[in-house]
Amino acid sequence: QVQLVESGGGLVQAGGSLRLSCAASGRTFSSYGMGWFRQAPGKEREFVATIRWSGGDTIYADSVKGRFIISRTNAKNAVYLQMNSLKPEDTAVYYCNDRTPWGDYWGQGTQVTVSS
Predict the structure, then answer these.
(1) How far apart are CA 64 and CA 54, in angstroms?
(2) What is the pLDDT of residue 1?
(3) Could you say which DSSP state residue 89 is in?
(4) Per-10-residue mean pLDDT for the chain, 116 residues long?
(5) Residue 116 per-residue DSSP state
(6) pLDDT value for 77
(7) Which residues contact 105 (CB under 8 A, 6 or more apart)?
(8) C-alpha separations of 3 from 18, 25, 78, 91 in Å
(9) Angle at CA 19, nearest 5°, toward 105 and 73?
(10) Exposure of 91 by Cβ count < 10 A (0-12 exposed, 13-18 middle, 19+ buried)?
């Protein structure tokens, strides 16, 4: 079992930056990788970015490419999302995800609000 806790959300002006953190605890040995998803009010949860533990390969949604950067710790106990050039449409609750052979684990989410 894995526990995930997100932090770093807040209110920022358009064009600004935020860095989200996800702290992982418990069993992380079997994790394929971790990622970030987001969900805006009234919309379905959507993929943002993923980083694989094996080689550090990253995948980004087209909507955030060139603006967001996902990174990890070597200890596999944390993942980060550096968000630059934020836009109002980035406003959402951001969730940390851990993908394992036994399924996905999720954090409770952290709110990101981008004002015009």
Answers:
(1) 23
(2) 80
(3) G
(4) 94 98 85 94 96 91 98 87 98 96 94 97
(5) -
(6) 85
(7) 1, 2, 3, 4, 97, 98
(8) 23, 5, 11, 24
(9) 60
(10) middle
